[in-house]
Amino acid sequence: MAGLSLASYTARRIALGLVQVLAVVTLVFLLVQALPGDAAVALAGDNPDPARIAQIRAAMGLDRPAPERFVEWLVGLPRLDFGVSLVSGRPVADFLSGGIGPTLVLAALTLVLLVPISVLVGVLAALREGSLLDRALTSISVALHSIPEFALAVVLIAVFGVQLAWLPPTAVGADLFAQPAVLVLPLVVLLARPICSISRLVRAGMVDALASDYVRHARRLGIGETRVRFAHALPNALAPAVQQVARTTDWLLGGVIVVEAVFVIPGLGTVLVDAVAARDLPVIQGLAVVFAVTTVAVNLLADLVAFRLAPRAEVVA
Predict the structure, then answer these.
(1) Which part of the chain is the ABC transmembrane type-1 domain (predicted)?
(2) Any domain includes 63
């Protein structure tokens, strides 16, 4: 991408992101429509009257052609109009606003803690390459990365929540904002694997950067070792890690669903599980759109940061 300005690259990525969002929104609608069964039949209860089924289908708009319903739904998305729940009759936006708080708290705290901890662990391992500290961090990373989130969550609940009773095992009856201790175990579960993968990338990038020609040249110019490490080597080591952070955010959307289910946290993951169980198609569609737009936006931001960091590989002084 040599010669491409940041503004031009940003415009291209935004245009591509909009196309991706439109494609995902279309795919979500088609997949939901392809689900087996009939929501009207499910809502009508046992031994439903055909007249009752027809009445429900008309009330939900299921008697209209799918393209017409898709266009109506698509036009409402920019206004955050995701439709109405088939089960409760409430706007889908109410479900999203009700569950987004706990999910945002979990995701934001995870990302805020993830980046500095991963960079610190990776840099420490790189600066002590081959040492006992480096080998210990590598062993711990491999061990933690091999444990699935739900298994780690169950172990933490059993040990710290039940046996030792140091932390609340679940969020049942707790206020997340008034009782932050409830978030400790979920955060540990969400942080464990990403820290392992990102710190290893930072370590590898830092080792390569410290052995590069431009770092050796900077040392020959008499630049201090601290500046060489953190002003020249570290930014280049972070470029691949930024992309991994974006992929981690994608994973985080699914990880939050698992964590919210295990720790009984009333966030978007719980809303999604309930909507799938009730076959509440508009709620499922709305959540899928939110997750898709978040994924595209995070990857766009990561690409821009990586693009900004990458040219520094050519800067020597």
Answers:
(1) 100-302
(2) no
